[in-house]
Amino acid sequence: MPVFAYKGRNPRGELVQGTLDSADASAVADQLMNSSITPLEITSAPVMGKMAQPEWVKRLLEQKVGLIDVLLFSRQMNTLLKAGVPILRALAGLQESTSNRTFAGVLQNLRNSLDAGRELSVAMRREGNVFTPFYVSMVRVGEMTGRLDEIFLRLFAHLDFERQTREQIKAALRYPTFVIAAMVIAIVIINIFVIPAFAKVYAGFGAELPLMTRILIASSDFTVRYWPAMLAGAVGGFAALRMYIQTPNGRYRWDKFKLRMPVVGSIVRKATLARFARSLSLAVKSGVPIVQGLSVVAKVVDNDYIGQRIEQMRDGVERGETILRTAMSAGVFTPVVLQMVAVGEETGAIDELMDEIAEMYDREVEYEVKNLSAQIEPILIVGIGILVLILALGVFLPIWDLSRVALHK
Description:
This protein is mainly alpha-helical. The protein has 17 helices and 3 strands. A 3-stranded antiparallel beta sheet has the order 2-1-3, with helices on one face. Helix 3 (67-82) packs antiparallel against helix 8 (148-205) and helix 14 (323-330) packs antiparallel against helix 15 (335-347). It is flat.
């Protein structure tokens, strides 16, 4: 539990100071007031007996705030606010009940900001790594309309959808990633251990080896001699790719490439568009203007390529174009979706139609994920067959040739 140093005055007006263990500064003040001590200053005190850790070590060991933490926070805030609990008391209760220390610190920062007179949305914006711009914008709308409890419920449903979508995409990529990794490991083991053993046997025959066998032996020799350099190159290449993806241009190109990947690209595209439709529906239902909603949603679709297309839609709407026309210009929606957008725009129920679009994409993603194995298995089987054929020809052709020569003799 945190330790706080305090200064205060007792009933006789004498200055007293010391330390107390408590959840936060407010709890320390309550303890002092119950002891007839008027607090003057309460500060966080360092814990004795522990060596100070470097900042990078603290960041490495720091518990991360995940989507599930914000998801539970949204649901609990909806329940507490709906029951009439004040925001400060609700935050204090959630701070004490959360098992994530980092998130408890975030809630403490929110309480401190509210104590300083800031609004909840402003306080959340200061915790930018935890609450997305979309989340903050929705909370801001809730504050302006006085329906903060409803907003937290809608955010809970939205984040739950996000969690399910991400899990579906991970499930879609898990199987091919595992198979490809197993193939790479098998190739490395064969090059380092299996082929050198056969090469020693063939060397004793003193006969000319087939071309395929010579290629395999040369590849194995290169791997055995230069595997440290190859490993360093692979690690360096991976690190360079990660750094490039973190740049704006690299992120844009990588997100565009993900949408064009065979088999998996369709799933990623539909899951991203489902996230867009669900987010825009939530924004419109909450009273956010369509232009502002598109601007916010473009930042939270988790794909820079789609995000730029949504920003183009926003620019078109700002110029007075219809949503249908801008959606057609974006070039990422199917004709069925465009037709639904047209109906929603004509009837003024764009939020309901966006919900239907999200549900449609969600069903398609779920279906494609379930059938992903059936689509990928033929490709993987062909790849494994080619690999086995190359190894079989390279390893057994010399044995076949030597046995044939021996039979002729």
